[in-house]
Specification:
Elements lengths: L9 H7 L16 E4 L5 E3 L1 H15 L7 E5 L5 H11 L2 E4 L20 E4 L6 H10 L3 E5 L10 E4 L5 H19 L12 H4 L3
Parallel strand pairs: 3-4, 3-5, 5-6, 6-7
Antiparallel strand pairs: 1-2
Helix pairs in contact: 1-5, 2-5, 3-5
Length: about 200
């Protein structure tokens, strides 16, 4: 795939640090790692990141916004997921996932969803476990140290950086809206990368 086929230009990906992992790597995530730098940090393969974002956009586009739940316990993702929810109309929890929301119909917060997406499989594990109990698919952003247990679709990326998360959810929002037919072209989307990202 040439750079022209990337969802955004190569330098925008690189500037966000979306490809910079950490010093720890799980066995599952090794397949997404391009190289390990001299300082020990793992570098994720940009092509694979791009491909997984595209697969995710196509997958999410099969669901209407009210069928999707997006959870981010990690504060670095709050602005990005809230912006994604605002633009796409999906349901977002920025902060602690309320236990039983997906599994206990007697709770006032109970809601039914058809898909769950989380920003980090470790802090968001309670939401993932609930989704597994009710049998809905789980998409998770995973850094080099994450495990893939109970996850149906992994997006390899730096899931701890505000710029990285902002870029990922900005791209995903654009692609979701195009694929759902909510907009006809990128020009109709008024939100910019800055609306999703923090310094």
């Amino acid at each position: 795939m040439t750079e022209e086929q990337f969802l955004v230009p190569n330098d925008i990906y690189l500037k966000s640090g979306i490809h910079i992992g950490n010093k720890f790597k799980s066995r599952y995530m090794e397949q997404f790692i391009y190289k390990t730098r001299q300082d020990g940090l793992s570098v994720l393969n940009l092509q694979k990141i791009n491909d997984r974002i595209e697969i995710t956009a196509n997958f999410l586009a099969q669901y209407s916004p009210d069928e999707i739940l997006l959870v981010s316990r990690r504060e670095a993702g709050w602005k990005a997921v809230r912006s994604f929810g605002k633009v796409t109309g999906t349901n977002v929890i920025a902060g602690r996932y309320p236990p039983g929301m997906l599994t206990n119909p007697s709770l006032s917060i109970y809601k039914e969803f058809k898909i769950l997406m989380v920003t980090d499989s470790w802090p968001d594990k309670n939401a993932i476990l609930d989704a597994n109990k009710i049998g809905i698919p789980v998409i998770s952003l995973c850094d080099t140290n994450n495990n893939s247990n109970y996850i149906d679709l992994v997006i390899p990326c730096n899931n701890k950086g505000k710029k990285s998360l902002g870029l990922l959810f900005w791209i995903l929002a654009r692609e979701y809206m195009i694929r759902r037919g909510l907009v006809k072209s990128y020009d109709e989307i008024k939100e910019t990368l800055d609306d999703f990202s923090e310094e």
